[in-house]
Amino acid sequence: MTRPDPSAVPSAAPVAPMPIVVATDAASASSPPVSAAETRRGFILVALGVMVFVPDALVMRLVDIDAFAMAVCRGVFGGLVMTLGCVIAYGRALPAAIRALGPWGIALAGLEAASTVLFCLSIAWTSVANAMLAFAATPMLAALIARVALGERIPAQTAAAIAATVAGLGLVAFGTWTEGGLGFAGLAAGLLSALTIALFFVLLRVLKANSAAPVIGPGWLLGAVIALPFATFEPMTAGQWIGAFATGGVILPLAITLVAWGSRSLPAAETSMMTLLEVVAGPILVWAVIGEFPGAWTLAGGAVVLAALTLHSLWRLRGGAGRAAAAAA
Which InterPro entries did the record assign (predicted)? Predict the structure, then answer.
């Protein structure tokens, strides 16, 4: 999940919903060229990851359990599956990979835990569209944090995208506030979730870590521990248990893994545009299946946010193509 100058994150650093990726100029310039076959494979993997992730919010809605209980289920199921995957992938090298992150690995796991819980609260406390739009602000928040913490320059195009994102989310916030405090609380939880992941990305940038995958599973398990004291577990049907396992143990780790693999051989801006499809398709699917209308203010604000992020990604992609042409010359 690659970001700062708008945001830098190693491709193997996954997050709660689908990551939105924007590479730095430095990262793009230093990335080794990939073949056309590798690019096609990356495109297919990222596309599959997005398609796997699209029904995630709908499944969470259909399971219909307490928000903290959902965080526990996603944390336990996803954490165990992700940890098992790392044990298989790293083998005996896993302890060394964890030690390589140093004490900051604990902070990374903590940020992942917080994001997992906050995302579940956001989905439960506001519309799916609001929750997804809030999380879409992650790369812009990472850019701001990188500017303050690392002194990284924010290009004019990125500054404009940040301003447009703030304006769009302001429209969403106005709509949810007028509709009631609960919706606003969910939007705030979504923004806090995005903030924790933005901090996660910037910390990875500081550590110059190639992958945080070894601490993702433990981070999700930690999120389950944090949510457990607040969770209300009513008797769950077999269908609810299956749905809870599907969202936490199948959709979450599978989609993140596919996007992480695919983004290694795909331009970051192109990955970013593809993952934006989830922000659009997820709420539309929820609207079509269970009739959850996002609201006029959310539609207006969402159009502004998505336009800003799409134009910014196109600018990054064009810049990457220009650098590649210059290098070839």
Answer: EmrE-like (IPR037185)
Question: Are 131 and 122 in contact, with CB atoms under 8 Å apart?
Answer: yes
Nearest to 247 by CA among 11, 15, 58, 107: 58
For the full predicted model, state whether its pTM sits above 0.90.
no
What range does the domain containing 38 cover? 34-317
At residue 279, φ and ψ (nearest 5 deg) are -65, -30
Structural domain contains residue 327: no
Residue 46 counted as domain residue: yes
Q: How many helices (H) and strands (E) does the chain have?
A: 15, 0
pLDDT in tens, 136-175: 888 888 888 888 888 888 888 888 888 888 888 888 888 8
SS3 state at 227: helix
Q: Among residues 227, 215, 217, which one has the least CA distance to residue 189? A: 227
Which residues fall within 8 angstroms of residue 17, CB to CB, at 6 or more apart? Answer: 53, 56, 57, 119, 132, 135, 278
Structure tokens at 38: 């590798």
What's the distance, Cα to Cα, between the start and end of the chain in Å? 31
Nearest to 58 by CA among 320, 286, 329: 286
Q: Count of domains in the chain?
A: 1
